[in-house]
Amino acid sequence: MLPLEPIKRATTPNRTRVVPVTNEDSEREAKHTMASGRLIVVANRLPVKRTGSGESGKWTATDGGLVTALRPVLRDPAHGGVWVGWPGSVSREPSQRPFTVDGIRMHPVQLSQREVDAFYHCFSNRTIWPLYHDAIRAPEFDESWWQAYVQANQRFARAAASAARPGDAVWIHDYHLQLVPRMLRQLKPDLKVGFFLHIPFPPGELFGWLPWRKPLLEGLMGSDVVGFQTESDARNFASAAQRYVGAKQVSAETIEHEGRRIQVGAFPISIDFDEFSAAADDPAIKLAAASIRRKVGDTRKILLGVDRLDYTKGIDLRLRAYERALQTKRLSVEDCVLIQVAVPSREPVPEYGKMRDDIERLIGRINGEHAVPGRVAVHYFRRSLPRKELLAYYRAADVMVVTPVRDGMNLVAKEYVATRNDGTGALVLSETAGAAEGLTDAIIVNPRDLEGASEAMVRAVRMDTLEGNARMMAMRETVRTGDVHRWAVRFLRVLAR
Fold first, then answer.
1. What is the band of 30 on the pLDDT scale with cuts at 50, 70, 90?
2. At what angle do helices 465-481 and 411-419 cross, to 10 degrees?
């Protein structure tokens, strides 16, 4: 599919070295790419939150990889830009005036409670989310949910059309808004339209389950560029477009539909490497990491998992693999501990509540069978950790275990790598996470192979220092030279063609 720009490489006798590109270079290039017009970002949520209430309420900016990557373009006084999205609160008002936060112009899209429930909670997260994650859980199909999805996408498309001027480029994001590209093109045919899917795109046989597969594909093909996390996702989309709506494959990176050519390719998203690396060297973070190690036992190896509490993350399988290593005496609570952070997600949904209960019972069993006085097998935190605390855990951990059953990318793996400034640490990574395509020096596992995953944890704990350092330094160069700023530049460059 669509190839990324080649990265300059310089060789050494033992290993290929990637020459880094600075964030400043990426920001300048992004601004240059957008010199002919503004950038209009369309996403389900605005990068803001409301503090206070009523007239005294104040909008403040929120952090995130997407806004980090696009902030330099959106704030550039030469041309600027606009972010279109839902502000996060329901309203009966038909519209709200645009406002500016942190130098970025916000164009809010108002949604009613009914629309949030049917469009977001139901169709987006009970139909599309499970279907696109290989139907790990059975997707639900409901005509009323689909109608709400169409109506909400129309609202976002109209808001984007209202915000855009001739010559602007519009970049639409993620599975909530797959109909917006075609709707927007019908409203403003002179715009450049790009779409990026942050989650996987399923194989054609699974995608074919969707009763509304044709209008959804046609919605995406309203774009000039459709981007995915991996090459396999891009191939799945191109194949589905040919199979279900008669698109033609023109070249390795181009399909044609209704007389228009659409660029299709992989643009793997990343993180702000410099930001994570610098933050990890903060003396307060180092002290917090040392404190964590003292509390669990200075001589014990720490294995760390950090996930949303979602069935795609494979937390139960990870725990069972770790349990197997304890049962077979390859690991013991005297020499290691697993710390699992599970960030609550969609807890009102009964299925998620049951999953949480099952995981907590499993942890109770493992600790009941293997803990000794002063040494538990698993420390479990069901809460979201503040950023500084999370960084401390990254620094403290000897092994990061990232084993989702299916994941579009998984930025936790890249965040961990970015914090390992001394080159120590090991990464156990699922082959079904998009990150595995780039982080090939991780220990790659099949998350459903409990014995294989168990052996990978043992190998990571016992890895020779020289091998561990070589692997980690290679992964750090991969993340450094393919950071989130370069991701944005690559996509915008193709969109500007």
1. low
2. 120
Residues linked to residue 106 through DSSP beta bridges, in sequence order: 83, 99
Sequence length of the chain is: 497
Split at pLDDT 50, 70, 90, the class of 18 is: very low
Q: How far is CA 407 from CA 56, 297, 304, 411, 482, in A?
A: 40, 33, 18, 10, 19
d(CA 212, CA 105): 34
Task: Tell me how far apart the alpha carbons of residues 219 and 240 are, in angstroms, rounded to a whole number.
Answer: 13
pLDDT at residue 12, rounded to an integer: 31
What are the two backbone dihedrals, phi and then psi, of residue 34, each rounded to the nearest 5 degrees?
-95, 15
Tokens read off for 427: 């990464």
Please report, in angstroms and rounded to a whole number, the separation of the first and last CA atoms in the chain: 17
* Phi, psi for residue 443 in degrees, rounded to 5: -85, 105
Q: What pLDDT is attached to residue 73?
A: 85
Tokens of 421: 């400034």
When mean pLDDT is compared over 13-22, 83-92, 366-375, the highest value belongs to: 366-375
- Per-residue pLDDT tens digits for 121-142: 999 999 999 999 999 999 999 9
The first and second tokens of residue 81, run together, are 């830009």
Q: How many CB atoms lie within 10 A of CB 137?
A: 16
Rounded Cα–Cα distance for residues 235 and 264 (Å)? 9
Task: Find tokens 């299925």 and name the residue.
Answer: 351
d(CA 107, CA 156): 10
Residue 108 vs residues 60, 93, 253: alpha-carbon distances, Å: 14, 11, 34
**Residues 175 and 124 sit within 8 Å (Cβ to Cβ):** yes
- Per-residue pLDDT, 32: 55
The tokens of 435 are what? 């990150």
Specify whether the CB–CB gap between 331 and 457 falls below 8 A: yes
**CB distance 303 to 457 below 8 Å:** yes
What letters, b where the CB count within 10 A reaches 16 and e where it falls short, cover 321-339? Answer: bbbbbbeeeebebeebbbb
Q: Considering the chain, what is the average pLDDT of its residues?
A: 91
CB-based contacts of 14, cutoff 8 Å, min separation 6: 470
